[in-house]
Design the sequence.
């Protein structure tokens, strides 16, 4: 059994001033109980990651850090998005912790699942995924699209844990290996299974958001899903190639049909069919160019190799 590991809970924050105090209250109670039960070290901490918030999030984090020894934080130089902020927190926390748990600030992730994650870790698992047991609280649209996304990713060959977001436990050695992944286009829930090591899951019920607004409206959700697909699978490109051969076959059939009509003297008929065919093929071409362009754009981003995050302030430093 691994003795009292140092746990860091990494919590990305973007405009979370309405929920931070309640999140702090609940996480403080959880960590104090875990320390009292000797499941984690007294050096364990909650690390808030300020993702360039426009409200008073960072000021509140610094106030909490001053008052509560169990809390610390880092601030990014500007808003970089949830995935980059989470990565920044994980890469910082691995320097201080034996094991790291990532979760959202809105209290939708059930903090009681932390106990189960630590138990799985003690059993020898280096990664423990928090998986939603049900989506009863989601709207029909969100539930259908979310579950459809995971199934679609599986069809594309992406090793993605079903109904898992970014609520997970990772050991220090997993994060050390993960630091070798240099992708600029991040889809963390698809990247961690690539690292390997022994893993398990803990099921939990996702709660309603405690306060504030969702940081993932429909547009962002669609962009995030598209990033996940294009970052982990080339099957859309292969689909374009297959579609090209299908259209080529159809065009040969149309050519033979047109020649027969020409020979028989019936060249006026078929105008509607011809115009529809032109528009259809034109649409397919534009979509295909767009998909290819998306992959080229990602290659362009990767070749520039710009920093995925820049930390402007780190409350863990001992000056």
Sequence:
């Amino acid at each position: 059994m691994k003795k009292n590991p140092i746990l860091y809970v990494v919590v990305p924050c973007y405009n979370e001033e309405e929920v931070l105090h309640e999140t702090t209250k609940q996480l403080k109670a959880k960590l104090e109980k875990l320390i009292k039960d000797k499941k984690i070290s007294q050096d364990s901490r909650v690390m808030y990651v300020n993702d360039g918030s426009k409200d008073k999030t960072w000021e509140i984090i610094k106030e909490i850090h001053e008052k509560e020894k169990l809390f610390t934080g880092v601030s990014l130089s500007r808003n970089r998005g949830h995935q980059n902020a989470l990565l920044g927190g994980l890469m910082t926390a691995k320097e201080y912790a034996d094991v790291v748990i990532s979760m959202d600030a809105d209290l939708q992730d059930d903090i009681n699942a932390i106990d189960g994650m630590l138990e799985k870790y003690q059993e020898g698992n280096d990664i423990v995924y928090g998986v939603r047991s049900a989506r009863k609280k989601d709207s029909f649209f969100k539930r259908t699209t979310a579950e459809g996304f995971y199934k679609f990713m599986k069809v594309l060959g992406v090793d993605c844990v079903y109904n898992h977001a970014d609520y997970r436990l990772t050991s220090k050695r997993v994060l050390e290996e993960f630091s070798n992944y240099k992708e600029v286009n991040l889809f963390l829930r698809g990247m961690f299974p690539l690292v390997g090591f022994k893993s398990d899951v803990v099921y939990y019920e996702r709660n309603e958001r405690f306060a504030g607004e969702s940081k993932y409206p429909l547009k962002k959700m669609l962009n995030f899903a598209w990033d996940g697909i294009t970052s982990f699978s080339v099957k859309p490109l292969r689909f374009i190639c297959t579609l090209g051969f299908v259209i080529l076959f159809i065009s040969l059939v149309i050519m033979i049909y047109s020649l027969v009509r020409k020979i028989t003297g019936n060249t006026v008929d078929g105008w509607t069919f011809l115009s529809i065919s032109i528009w259809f093929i034109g649409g397919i071409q534009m979509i295909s160019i767009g998909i290819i362009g998306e992959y080229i754009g990602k290659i362009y981003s990767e070749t520039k190799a710009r920093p995925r995050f820049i930390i402007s302030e780190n409350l863990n430093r001992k000056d």
Notes: The chain has ten helices and eight strands. The mean pLDDT is 77. Residues 7-220 form a domain with the Spore Coat Polysaccharide Biosynthesis Protein SpsA; Chain A fold (CATH 3.90.550.10).
